[in-house]
Amino acid sequence: MDRRLCDVSASARLAGPDEGIGRDELALATRNHGLPLEALRYDVTPPGLHYVLTHYDIPYVPGDESWELTIGGRVRRPMSFEPADLRAYPAVTLRVTLECAGNGRALLTPRPVSQPWLVEAVGTAEWTGVPLRLLLADAGVEDGAVDVVFTGADHGVERGVEQDYQRALPVDVAVGEESDVLVAYGMNGAPLPPQHGLPLRLVVPGWYGMAHVKWLRDITVTDRPFTGFQQSVAYRLRRHPEEEGEPVTRIAPRALLVPPGFPDFMSRARVVRPGTLTLEGRAWSGRAPVTRVEVSTDGGLGWGEAEVEPAGTHRWAWGRWRFAWAATPGDHVLTARATDAEGHTQPLEQPWNRGGFANNLVQRVPVVCLEPDD
Amino acid sequence: MDRRLCDVSASARLAGPDEGIGRDELALATRNHGLPLEALRYDVTPPGLHYVLTHYDIPYVPGDESWELTIGGRVRRPMSFEPADLRAYPAVTLRVTLECAGNGRALLTPRPVSQPWLVEAVGTAEWTGVPLRLLLADAGVEDGAVDVVFTGADHGVERGVEQDYQRALPVDVAVGEESDVLVAYGMNGAPLPPQHGLPLRLVVPGWYGMAHVKWLRDITVTDRPFTGFQQSVAYRLRRHPEEEGEPVTRIAPRALLVPPGFPDFMSRARVVRPGTLTLEGRAWSGRAPVTRVEVSTDGGLGWGEAEVEPAGTHRWAWGRWRFAWAATPGDHVLTARATDAEGHTQPLEQPWNRGGFANNLVQRVPVVCLEPDD
Q1: Is the per-residue pLDDT at B25 higher than 70?
Q2: Which class in CATH covers the domain with range B3-247?
Q3: Do A33 and B36 make contact, defined as CB atoms within 8 angstroms?
Q4: Residue from the list A10, A266, A329 with its beta carbon closest to the beta carbon of B24
């Protein structure tokens, strides 16, 4: 590698004790954005409020006529599609809650230096496209296939490695009869917005965002495990740099609440007046439906059961929950904890790894309740 | 004021030397967002890429049937509108470049602690609505009117003052025959997205964003100058806290360039290969059309003239400029400077005030050009 590329592309690191957010982390935070938490009220997140994380630049695609998606590797019939060709397949629409694997990272101690999310890297959309398994059935996956590799058009350098963004899925996740993986061309009934992958992206329900490759250009079936940067270097759960680490896959359960009352502009602290309030929020898990949400209004000392709306038909979308709270003057810390049907739940102490991935520590919302006559 | 409100709502302050971005600034940066600079390529910014700054919460407005806009104060015929009533007026569409008054704040020394923008708090949209002067003509502005006060539905507390967001315009800006001020209900041919003011907002072409009141609920004509928080406390140019300060009004000229090449994920440094590149960008001013853009590729030592596209019919929108650059291996700093027809230009040293407002210091884009064989 050129010496100069090393100069601009440093190794991963942890922030020092009391080290504030740096210029590099801020440059990511000003271009990527989370869901403003009051927008948890929408069943389906308006596109501009859905969280966005782009590793490199958003490709400029003024029209999709010249876009080509290729399917190759260990298939019997390599194929090539323009976006319009995909609309000839039966359209499938799925409501999916998508969360960044790094959500919560900036709250960790020590803090992994990367995109500095608090808890807001989430959103829910209705994605329309073609089931990946239908495309791969037409291409004819050969025996001995192991991984399916997806390549996006976004190009950059990361820790010294120049790359197009690439991720893989195990072949059974990609082509199994139960597979809900989509090659999507629509979001909330409209074409994909540029920042969400115009003209084509992958949607992998239940998996963290890194798997949902945007600006999708190529699908290659391989007969050995994919070892690209985003699979083997990034997005691994490691406590020490030399570990191989476990891969980041499905979304761990999380509940978030709509911060009640109104905010202070600068501190974002919440202010309410005394009385009974209905706290509400959303909860999701990529592993199994959420079956229980507990709420604490005293920072985790005592817990009560929230009313969880029945899951309904949207297996991959967040569900709503509600909890009545009698607010009294003083300082309070609200928190909520989701548990899914497989028994996965949220920890009350931080789970920590060097990437700050899949960290589903419970949210804490400090609230000030004013005196009644104020 | 209640003691507890003081606890959550601090005075304005400046960051200390070497003080990193704090948790409070980060909480603003994760919910508000800028224009990813590669999106300067679009004439009209897709809504989810346009910068957003919300002081308090985004109001939840699932349908606009129950929304009421009132016009009162020093008018002969107080009026009330539902959003649908406004569509009975002739629709006007204007292409407008909108910039936050705090753009560039996080690059200042010392840094005012607030929304920590670098240079990306800008966007261009086509806003559709009714000229404010037509509504006020129907209401009949009385003699002696001084200000027109606009009230939004977003509610919060700021430096101890609980408030709905309010700003005023001088009556001649609001109702003059040349006035382009709109009460807008559409953005880029669709209803306003929630974060841009659904269902109604003010658009004040040429003025910084704080004047474009979102979630507009009331318009009141007054016979004395408006002295609300956002007019007299915030959004003033002051070097010392005790000064009255000048009001922030029209957008100062600025040029931004599309960062060339590709980025490093973490440092956001730009990487190019040797050869002739066409640098491109946008330039705008809220005072007069931009007539000149100069570019430097050596950090401001030497300057060349960029080719500026003719202004065309969109008086209030940014214009495109281009500049050919022969990139050679090594480190470079690119910068561009806009000048408008009234001679306003961009400073090469930071202009500073305690709010970090109307700061149009030139952008600096460090670029690494690799060796030819890399």
Answers
A1: yes
A2: alpha beta
A3: no
A4: A266
- Listed in order, the ranges of chain A carrying CATH 2.60.40.650 are 254-369
CATH of segment(s) B254-369: 2.60.40.650
Task: Indicate yes or no: CB of B374 within 8 angstroms of CB of A5.
Answer: yes
Min Cα separation A229/chain B (Å)? 13
Q: How far is B9 from chain A (nearest CA, A)?
A: 6
- Tokens 């050129």 label which residue? A2
Q: If you average pLDDT over every residue of chain B, what do you get?
A: 96
Q: Do the chains contact at B263 and A33, CB–CB below 8 Å?
A: no
Longest dimension (CA), chain B: 75
Q: How many CA atoms lie within 13 A of B266 on its CB side?
A: 20
What is the DSSP track for A113-132? SSS---S--EEEEEEEEEEH
Compute the distance between CA of residue A220 and CA of residue B19 in angstroms, rounded to an integer: 47
Taking the C-alpha atoms of residue A151 and residue A121, their distance in angstroms, rounded to an integer, is 23
User: Between B30, B262, B329, which is nearest A34 by CB?
Assistant: B30
What pLDDT shows up at residue B366?
Answer: 96
Residue B21 main-chain phi, psi, to 5 deg: -60, 130
Question: Which of B55, B157, B268 has its CB closest to that of A27?
Answer: B268
Q: What percent of chain A has pLDDT over 70?
A: 99
Least confident of A201-215, B63-77, B88-102, B277-291: B63-77
Tally helices (H) and strands (E) across chain A: 5, 22
In 3D, which of B212, B184, B192 has the Cα closest to residue B286? B212
- Chain A hits for B259, Cβ within 8 Å: 57
Helix (H) or strand (E) holding A163: strand A161-170
Stated length of chain B: 374
- Give the model confidence (pLDDT) of A75-84 as tens digits: 999 999 999 9
Smallest CA–CA separation between B105 and chain A, in Å? 12
Closest CA to B293 of B269, B318, B270: B318
Which residues of chain A does CATH 3.90.420.10 include? 3-247
What pLDDT is stored for residue A5 in this prediction?
82
CB-CB under 8 Å, B29 with A29:
yes
Question: How many residues appear in chain A?
Answer: 374
| β-pair type (B69-73, B216-222) | parallel
The DSSP symbol for A356 reads -
| Nearest neighbour of B195 by CB, restricted to A41, A48, A54 | A48
Question: Residue B192: its chain A contacts at CB < 8 A?
Answer: none
Query: Residue A266 has what pLDDT?
Result: 96
